[in-house]
Specification:
GO terms for molecular function: heme binding; L-tryptophan 2,3-dioxygenase activity; metal ion binding. Helices cover about 60% and strands about 0% of the residues. It has helices at about 5-20, 25-35, 40-45, 45-50, 60-85, 95-115, 115-120, 125-130, 145-150, 170-175, 195-215, 220-230, 235-265, 280, 285-290, 300-305, 305-315. The protein starts with a helix and ends with a helix. The mean pLDDT is about 90.
């Protein structure tokens, strides 16, 4: 093979690169010579990935349940990958912001559109049996999902609706005591924190508080205001922020609500969700009124937040 000027140039640049680290180029060339060819299955650790499903029962559809939640967490990781790049970009522009938000919304489009797997993709009787072996574990305990919320908005918007105005100027730690999702994991009979919630707080509270403190000025809402004050055209960003608001605060919880209605609603007494969460009051968006960017919506839209979606679900999925 002819050693072209282009190849010589690359060899010189490689030599400079490794010399700067006190390394010998020849050693790295030997490494390339002796290394095996890369395969697809090794690159993505396919065998390991396919071995990560460990059902607790013999019911076949439990494996569907596990895999879907694993897929969900991978989408959340993709979302957080974009969140970190937005919050950590010291040279952020409206165009970059909008591009990253479009990626996030694409991930949530896939998540919401695929949730029928959980609504109709499992045998109901199997689910009602294998779910009892999962206690007190619950999808409620997704730390990545809570991190996405923290990256998205001012922490005040994550405070329970009844305390939101009162704690508007409180510290993040004080607000965290009344964060909305704590009310979704209280015992139905006593109102006390479930073990599900206690486990969750013990594992993630410090991490959530630190993330909130670190992003006081770099959450999406704060960055939007900053870029707008600089005079940038925010139309594309506003469009994507509204989509994100609907995905995370209406469509995604409503998808879970569909599943809960399908599997857990039973007259005259509804079945408690895994971990004892009060899903009837916790999941419907109209009760929580959790809105990341209320200034991007009209008063009427805020007042009717999620209401029509919930009513349609009740009509379509009542069992």
């Amino acid at each position: 093979m002819e050693i072209t000027p282009e190849i010589k140039d690359r060899l010189l640049r490689l030599q400079e690169k490794y010399a700067a680290m006190g390394q010998d180029l020849n050693a790295y060339l030997d490494g390339l010579l002796y290394a095996d060819y890369l395969t697809y299955w090794d690159y993505i650790h396919l065998d390991t990935l396919l071995s990560l499903q460990h059902p607790k029962t013999s019911y076949p559809d439990e494996e569907i349940f596990i895999m879907y939640h694993q897929i969900t967490e991978l989408y959340f990781k993709l979302t957080l990958h974009e969140c970190k790049q937005i919050a950590g970009n010291a040279s952020l522009t409206a165009d970059i912001f909008a591009t990253k938000l479009k990626r996030i919304n694409a991930y949530f489009t896939a998540l919401v559109s695929s949730f029928d797997i959980m609504v109709d993709g499992m045998d109901k009787e199997q689910f009602l049996k294998f779910r009892m072996s999962l206690l007190p574990a619950s999808g409620f305990q997704s730390g990545q999902y809570r991190m996405i919320e923290i990256y998205a908005t001012d922490f005040t918007q994550l405070v329970s609706l009844a305390k939101r105005e009162e704690l508007k100027h409180a510290t993040i730690k004080e607000k965290f005591e009344h964060i909305y999702w704590k009310s979704g994991a209280s015992e139905l009979s006593t109102g006390k924190q479930t073990l599900t919630l206690q486990q969750f707080i013990a594992k993630y509270a410090a991490q959530f508080l630190q993330l909130a403190e670190d992003n006081v000025h770099t959450n999406f809402s704060a960055l939007y205001r900053s870029l707008r004050q600089r005079g940038e055209n925010m139309e594309s960003v506003e469009e994507e922020l509204r989509k994100l608001d609907l995905f995370v605060n209406v469509e995604w919880p409503l998808s879970h609500y569909k599943s809960a209605v399908r599997y857990l609603e039973r007259d005259p007494v509804d079945i408690a969700a895994t971990g004892g969460t009060n899903w009837q009051k916790y999941l419907p968006p109209r009760f929580q009124k959790r809105i990341f960017f209320p200034y991007l919506w009209t008063e009427e839209q805020v007042d009717q937040w999620g209401k029509s979606w919930v009513m349609n679900v009740l009509k379509s999925y009542r069992v």
